[in-house]
Amino acid sequence: MPAVPSPPGAPSPGTVPIDLGADPARELAREELARQVYRDARPDPLLSGLQWLARRLDDLLRAASGISPGGGWGLVVLLVLLVAVVLVVRRRFGPTLRTASAPGAVLGSSELSADEHRRRADTHAGAGRHDDAVRERMRAIVRALEERTVLEPRRGRTAGDAAREGGRALPGAAGALAEAAHLFDETVYGGRPADAAADARMRAADATVAATRLVPTS
């Protein structure tokens, strides 16, 4: 079985001394638990459970230090368990943690046009990657509204923001925008896989928004 790589800052295999003292082990655990990565993540049931487990491991390290001041195999085992928790957290939540500063944002640093996002959506849909197709189609909708000056360009805008703001400017497309935002959130953040039907609904919403004219203000 291939070796699992250790995360940055964690002790690599073969570097943990057999006779690890209680204080060094406890300090390693505290340093890992104090990392910013654990504080910035969006709330998630699995992450909360892993954080709880990490805290319990820290408690065990504290208790073990009182029972065995000189250290021993028990502390090594606890430290290995802590490293395993870290690996699971970083593999499961790495992308989420990197974008946690703008949870739910539709557009990131990309400067693609609406048509470019539509072409990407078509490519993903043709390959059966419907989750990615839904994501790109929502980006196309938002970018198109910005290109038409219906919305002011703004980083960190969520699908819900775009639906509310766009719906006020385009009342005839309010329903289509709300449905597109719901599908986007459900697929990207709600954990529900998209399918061909979801892609078709996003295409219909995009077409409706594109065909809806601005209502003149008196």
What attributes characterize this protein structure?
218 residues; mainly alpha; 63% helix; 0% strand; elongated
Task: Explain this structure.
Residues 1-11 have a biased composition (Pro residues). Pfam families: DUF4129. Residues 137-206 form the Protein-glutamine gamma-glutamyltransferase-like C-terminal domain. InterPro entries: TgpA-like_C (IPR025403). With 218 residues, this protein is mainly alpha-helical. The protein has 2 domains: 22-98, no CATH class; 114-211. The chain is 63% helix and 0% strand. It has 9 helices and no strands. The chain starts with 21 loop residues before the first helix and ends in a 7-residue tail after the last helix. Residues 6-22, 36-42 and 94-102 have low confidence and may be disordered.
Specify Rg, calculated over alpha carbons.
24 Å
Mean of the pLDDT scores?
Answer: 74
Q: Gap between N and C termini, in Å?
A: 71 Å
User: How many structural domains can be distinguished in the coordinates?
Assistant: 2
Order of helices and strands: HHHHHHHHH
Q: How many beta-strand elements?
A: 0
